[in-house]
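Quick one, tokens below:
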């Protein structure tokens, strides 16, 4: 299957031909991600949509790489096909410059696809539909001659896939959760079923209450005439409420670096933050299951969006397509309007005693072993236990344990117990080794920094 050879300069020329008033001769490749509001002035774009547009611009450029491995190219197309299965455009329904970029780079390849590649059982149906929509929709107003368009026979369908219904999928997940909740509540007492006898008894009680009320009214009237005090109806004794048994306080989890959810992450893409010069915005696969809070889907993978203050400290090209170590159970924070759902671990020189840390670098990313998979948990040797779901900011677990994160003379990342006063006095932990390792025993390292701060 062939791929497109379209370049960024070709794309700019194409945009200038279609949108001459919005794309000038001085517009460069670096300006592409900011073009959507000029091309489609009737639409507004959130910061997250701007970031997503930049991500798709990078994805489309990868699809156009001439020397891309055939299997990798097929994998990217498959992920794109899945993404478009429930969307009209890359952003969902809103047009963007990324749609045009993707069309311009993929159209030459789609022209050469066979009918089986287009609409066969393993074809890219939704990619073909997307191409047809972009080249013909008045929304995009592309300047294309009829002979330059991809000729698509809408009746030539080799295989009909069952459509993916997002609502049905959501409903299915709800039912699964409800079933699980019902199973957990099997031990609860069932409500009594009302019978005819019970209803008869209720009617009888109602009659008795009516009679009692009439008698009480008669007694009060007699008392008013004779001057006698009205007889008081004996109050029904209230049943004393039994005090509810107090729940036992939750067991305090011993302080341990295992409380921190450290995982191998795979950066699929990193871009400059649209609103902060010192930040990158990375799209990172961390092995989360579908539906996990604060995740989304990118290129067919479940990912987290992560903001990191590494802009100016690590070149952007070094952030692309690489494995890192991510802290995955910090409470998400919004950084200049973009929510960040993890933190990338990096090492920097330790300040000398009395010296202020200005975070000026150099900085090196913590690197897992080459064969480590995204989502694989990493722990410090000698420590065992499950991580917290989300670290409680009030307990300051990360702030307490992070000073123990360091690098050794062998450039290995480790945990120095002596740096944590709260762990002193426990003879069992002083002797524990502290290298940061994967389940298979591979060690996490840095390039050159020894005795460094890792955070």
């Amino acid at each position: 299957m062939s791929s497109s050879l379209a370049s960024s300069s070709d794309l700019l020329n194409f945009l200038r031909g279609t949108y001459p008033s919005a794309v000038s001769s001085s517009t460069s490749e670096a300006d592409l991600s900011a073009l959507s509001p000029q091309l489609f002035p009737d639409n507004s774009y959130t910061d997250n949509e701007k970031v997503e547009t930049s991500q798709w611009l990078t994805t489309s450029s990868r699809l156009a790489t001439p020397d891309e491995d055939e299997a990798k190219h097929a994998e990217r197309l498959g992920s794109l096909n899945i993404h478009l299965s429930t969307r009209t455009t890359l952003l969902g329904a809103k047009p963007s410059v990324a749609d045009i970029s993707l069309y311009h780079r993929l159209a030459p390849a789609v022209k050469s696809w066979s009918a089986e590649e287009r609409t066969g059982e393993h074809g890219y149906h939704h990619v073909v539909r997307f191409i047809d929509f972009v080249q013909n929709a008045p929304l995009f107003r592309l300047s294309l001659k009829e002979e330059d368009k991809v000729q698509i026979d809408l009746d030539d369908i080799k295989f009909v896939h069952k459509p993916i219904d997002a609502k049905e999928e959501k409903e299915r997940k709800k039912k699964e959760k409800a079933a699980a909740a019902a199973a957990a509540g099997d031990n609860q007492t069932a409500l009594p079923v009302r019978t005819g006898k019970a209803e008869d008894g209720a009617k009888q009680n109602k009659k008795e209450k009516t009679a009692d009320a009439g008698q009480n009214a008669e007694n009060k009237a007699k008392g008013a005439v004779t001057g006698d005090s009205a007889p008081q109806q004996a109050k029904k004794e209230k049943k004393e409420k039994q005090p509810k048994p107090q729940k036992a306080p939750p067991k305090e989890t011993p302080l341990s670096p295992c409380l921190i959810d450290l995982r191998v992450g795979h950066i699929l893409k990193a871009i400059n933050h649209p609103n902060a010069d010192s930040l990158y915005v990375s799209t990172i696969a961390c092995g989360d299951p579908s539906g996990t809070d604060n995740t989304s889907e990118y290129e067919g993978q479940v990912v987290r969006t992560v903001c990191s203050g590494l802009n100016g400290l690590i070149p952007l090209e070094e952030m692309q397509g690489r494995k890192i170590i991510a802290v995955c159970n910090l409470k998400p924070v919004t950084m200049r309007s973009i929510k960040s759902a993890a933190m990338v671990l990096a090492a920097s020189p330790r300040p000398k005693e009395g010296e202020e840390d200005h975070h000026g670098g150099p900085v090196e990313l913590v690197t897992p072993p080459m064969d480590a998979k995204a989502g694989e948990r990493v722990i410090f040797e000698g420590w065992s236990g499950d991580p917290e779901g989300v670290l409680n900011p009030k307990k300051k677990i990360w702030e307490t344990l992070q000073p123990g994160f360091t690098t050794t003379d062998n450039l290995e990342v480790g945990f120095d117990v002596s740096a944590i006063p709260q762990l002193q006095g426990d003879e069992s932990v002083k002797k524990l080794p502290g290298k940061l390792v994967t389940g298979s025993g591979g060690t996490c390292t840095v390039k050159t920094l020894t005795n460094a701060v890792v955070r």
